[in-house]
Amino acid sequence: MTLTLDVKLTPEQIAEAWCDLDDEGQAQFFIECARIAAKWRPDSNFQQWFSIGRHLRDCECSTEEARGMVRDIAAPLMVSP
Q1: How far apart are CA 51 and CA 59, in angstroms?
Q2: CA separation for the pair 3, 5 (Å, rounded)
Q3: Cα–Cα distance measured from residue 34 to residue 28, given in angstroms and rounded to the nearest whole number
Q4: Cα–Cα distances in Å, from 36 out to 8, 44, 45, 64, 81?
Q5: CB–CB of 20/9 below 8 Å?
Q6: Residues near 70 by beta carbon (within 8 Å), at least 6 away in sequence
Q7: Which residues contact 18 (CB under 8 A, 6 or more apart)?
């Protein structure tokens, strides 16, 4: 028997699952997001990433902790190994 469920996850549920991962798993999450987004129409993933950044910058729902988390994740990318 096969049972297929269509479950809509909330951002909170996805965040909780991501936070349960180790650094390798969390990095793989971003790698998979980029792989999936690469299938979108050309340049739409850049536009989406920019929109997320703008939302984090401007929306009243955003927090300094969320913005700081993104900066902390990106910081090592700006330094040569």
Answers
A1: 11
A2: 7
A3: 10
A4: 18, 12, 9, 28, 27
A5: no
A6: 53, 56
A7: 26, 29
| Residue 21, both tokens | 């991962």
Q: State pLDDT tens for residues 30-69.
A: 999 999 998 888 777 778 999 999 999 999 999 999 999 9
**Token pair recorded at residue 55:** 């939302």
Q: Could you write out the three-class secondary structure of the chain? A: CCCCCCCCCCHHHHHHHHHCCCHHHHHHHHHHHHHHHCCCCCCHHHHHHHHHHHHHHHCCCCCHHHHHHHHHHHHHHHCCC
